[in-house]
Design brief:
The protein is built from 1 helix and 8 strands; from the N terminus they run βαβββββββ. This is DUF296 domain-containing protein.
Length: about 140
């Protein structure tokens, strides 16, 4: 376990419109903020296409239709993001998992609030316990 790192934060809000890619929109917000660490605060909206990697699966599953975003949470760093998405279909059935970078198209709107953490630096490094690249938090470089 790593030592606790703290930072003040600045909130940013953005609305993505029809056809925009959710992950690409978040990457633009990250780049424009000038930060090295960002967290999702809230996200509501709708998608027509999305690719989700479900728990313990090696690849993403593509979905097309009309979906409400009921939750988006995660972190962004300079090179990547770790985002978990929950969506609901037209019958109210909710499902989710790891949001894959490609293939997420906004249907009508997506309203997002993020928190830029200027005192922190997020990065990813291999973790021998999980076998994945995991979050590494340090003070801003």
């Amino acid at each position: 376990m790593h030592a606790l790192a703290s930072s003040t934060g600045t909130f940013h809000a953005v609305r993505l419109g029809p056809g925009q890619n959710l992950t690409q929109g978040l990457r633009r917000v990250f780049a424009d903020s000038g930060t090295q660490a960002m967290a999702i605060v809230t996200c509501v909206g709708s998608l027509t296409d999305v690719v989700i990697r479900h728990a313990n699966q090696p690849d993403g599953t593509a979905y097309s239709g009309h979906f409400e975003i009921t939750s988006l949470t995660g972190t962004l760093d300079a090179k990547s993001q770790h985002l978990h998405l929950t969506i609901a279909d037209d019958q109210g059935r909710a499902f989710g998992g790891h949001l894959m970078p490609a293939g997420s198209a906004v249907f009508t709107t997506t309203e997002i609030v993020v928190l830029a953490l200027p005192g922190l630096h997020f990065d990813r490094a291999p973790c021998p316990l999980s076998g994945y690249d995991e979050l590494v938090v340090t003070g801003r470089r």
